[in-house]
């Protein structure tokens, strides 16, 4: 229990609040995220999932409290520690798939070209196809390749399955599971697709109104409630 943060946890949040003018988005969150795990970040719209991920990525800063990733505050200076996939689509439509990945790779020294090529094959994307002509599901797959092709200790995925077809969801979930480097990386994934994602999760955070409602290992939560995570969602939020 007294091991240093850098040995046991990839991230630690202490008393974190986030306010936007009159809106209080995150209320005093205390959280430790274990290294080498896939963590499900669950909650309805407006529960604070995106805000929490953006703060962990160093995109925005807490109003008060402290966030550490690998023992340091997340900001532009330690972007090599974190890969962040936003829910919004920020791809350039005039580029091809190949040009998109080449463009993104130029920003990061940790880019793994072999992993990108392997994922392109698994995701069944044509490298010469223009991004503007890709379906929403294909664009989601391309965004995921961009995030998972970096060799970083922490990967943050904000709703990677949002609004896409079941076939693309299945491909993305399989890819996350196969590319995950257990013990080397930690993935925090926010999603509403609990049923499909549940088998991946080591730990699960349930957010409600900017507060942590539940946080434990998926195994402990299923044992405590006697049901699946999908059914726990229904008990917590319905």
Question: Which key terms come to mind for this protein?
Answer:
three-stranded antiparallel sheet; nucleotide-binding; ATP-binding; 9 strands; 26% strand; 34% helix; ABC_transporter-like_CS; Rossmann fold; 238 residues; P-loop_NTPase; AAA+_ATPase; six-stranded mixed sheet
Task: Give the ordered list of helices and strands.
Answer: HEEEHEEHHHEHEHEEHH
* Radius of gyration, in angstroms, nearest whole number: 18 Å
Tally the helices: what do you get?
Answer: 9
Tell me what the CATH architecture is. 3-Layer(aba) Sandwich
Distance between the termini: 35 Å
Q: Bin the helical content.
A: 25-40%
Shape: globular
CATH level-four homologous superfamily name: P-loop containing nucleotide triphosphate hydrolases
Low-confidence stretches: 1-6
What do the pLDDT scores average to?
Answer: 89
Work out the number of β strands.
9
What's the CATH class, please?
A: Alpha Beta
> How many structural domains does the protein architecture include?
1
Sketch the major β-sheet.
Answer: 6 strands, mixed
At the fold tier of CATH, the topology name is: Rossmann fold
- β content, as a range? 25-35%
SS class: alpha/beta
Strand order of the largest sheet: 5-6-7-3-8-9
GO molecular function, one term: ATP binding
Protein name: ABC transporter ATP-binding protein
Keywords: ATP-binding, Nucleotide-binding
Domain ABC transporter: 11-234
């Amino acid at each position: 229990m007294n091991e240093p943060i850098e040995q046991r946890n990839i991230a630690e949040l202490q008393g974190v609040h986030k306010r936007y003018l009159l809106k209080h988005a995150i209320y005093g969150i205390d959280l430790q995220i274990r290294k080498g795990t896939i963590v499900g970040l669950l909650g309805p719209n407006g529960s604070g999932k995106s805000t929490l991920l953006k703060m962990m990525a160093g995109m925005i800063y807490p109003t008060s409290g402290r966030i550490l990733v690998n023992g340091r505050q997340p900001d532009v200076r330690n972007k090599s520690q974190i890969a962040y996939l936003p829910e919004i689509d920020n791809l350039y439509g005039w580029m091809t798939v190949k040009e998109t990945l080449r463009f993104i790779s130029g920003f990061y020294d940790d880019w793994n070209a072999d992993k990108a090529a392997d994922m392109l094959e698994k995701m069944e994307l044509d490298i010469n196809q223009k991004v503007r002509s890709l379906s929403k599901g294909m664009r989601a797959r391309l965004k995921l390749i961009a995030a998972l092709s970096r060799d970083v200790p922490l990967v943050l995925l904000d709703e990677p399955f949002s609004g896409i077809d079941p076939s693309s969801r299945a491909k993305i979930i399989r890819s996350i599971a196969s590319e995950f480097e257990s013990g080397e990386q930690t993935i925090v994934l926010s999603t509403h697709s609990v049923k499909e994602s549940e088998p991946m999760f080591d730990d699960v955070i349930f957010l409600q109104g900017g507060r942590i409602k539940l946080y434990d290992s998926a195994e402990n939560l299923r044992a405590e409630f006697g049901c699946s995570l999908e059914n726990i969602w229904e008990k917590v939020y319905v």
